[in-house]
Predict the structure.
Amino acid sequence: MFNYNCHDGQQDFLVEYVEATIGKGSVFPVSFMEKMKYVFVVNRNAGKGRVIKKWPALEARVAELFDDYTVSYDLAPIATDADVVVAVGGDGTVNYVVNYLMTSNRHAALGVLPLGSGCDFARNFETEDALAVLARGNTKAIDVGEIESAGNKMWFANVADAGMGAEVTRQMANHSRNYLFSTLKALVGYKNVDVRLFADGEEVYSGPLKCLVMANGKYFGDGMGIAPDAVLDDGLLQYVIIGNISRLMAAIKLQQTYKCTRIKHRHVYYGSARELRLEMSSALALEADGELMVKMPAGEAVYVRAIHHALNVVAGSKRLWTIPQ
């Protein structure tokens, strides 16, 4: 039995909507909807204009489902009293919201309406109607990746990487929004950098690096299952070292990751750790959730760690960490 304090005509819509999306007789968290304050952070530049085209229709549904919500566009300030902050866009929008939550509003939960170009973070969850998921209000605690260098910190929800992956991000930002084209262009121009990598204090690699992936979630690069063993809530980061491998072989092997299986090559290594320390012989670019960071200078140590259950995310009620089919 539903008992809403809703606007005229809203109760019937909600009953029909909820029953259609989660089934008749389901328990629906009314108190969550009526008492929680939502902020929708809409990145109008995300998804090659897809967000700005779809948002008016989406907001009409939001207005019918939620009494207390506001909209923040692009990089406008986010209300500090929000209970749920919803990233409307792609991975870059998620990254922006996560960094806001980690620095300014640790009690709020993260929500996602995946409408950007990549949306790799959202691939870690079962495919459902995203607004229905937000309306149900079920939350799960997940880990957050933290990057620290020279006393500065930033956070990521999904994947960070150093080397060629960051060069791909730069190519996409400056020249092309096509990931495959940007990857091929980055492969041609990228030169390996000698690095040392330590996992939980133990040296695990020393040598030339093409790409180092540090993964909280499984996917990056618009659907590449680069870290098939990564789990969002286990307190660990999976790392993938792509070492002294030829450009052609790197292109071939990276394409195989769309099956979300491990790369089989003698210069590709996998592992997991709570904390990684990266030292490089020359300047090296990093990116996190598709957002390019400042190049790290030679001799600078970069620490990347998993912060266990640092963030709540509004997620589906089914099994959370399945691979979408």
Q: What stands out?
A: DSSP finds eight helices and 16 strands in the chain. Confidence is low (pLDDT under 50) at residues 1-34, 318-325.
